[in-house]
Design goal:
83 residues; mainly alpha; 52% helix; extended
């Protein structure tokens, strides 16, 4: 058939190896800064509390970045070291 593709002549891309390099670079940078990357599940009621405390705008309750910033702000307020 004329429409068959010879797979031996197709270039082989390695996008996963590049993304692995990027992930490792980010991991090392976080480790250097004393940070850890974790996945945390939040309940809707916890998001409601962030809104109630004024750390998150109600219209941003589904905005992942805004929620992360609110949680970081909460940590800064509650976990700040005191001399």
């Amino acid at each position: 058939m004329a429409h068959e593709i010879d797979e031996t002549t197709q270039p082989v891309a390695a996008p996963t190896s590049r993304s692995a390099v990027d992930r490792m670079r980010a991991h090392r940078e976080r480790r250097r800064l004393g940070l850890r990357c974790l996945t945390v599940q939040l309940r809707e009621t916890e998001i409601d509390v962030l809104i109630g405390k004024g750390l998150l705008m109600p219209e941003a309750r589904n905005d992942t970045r805004a929620i992360i910033q609110a949680v970081h702000h909460h940590f800064d307020k509650t976990l700040a070291s005191t001399p």
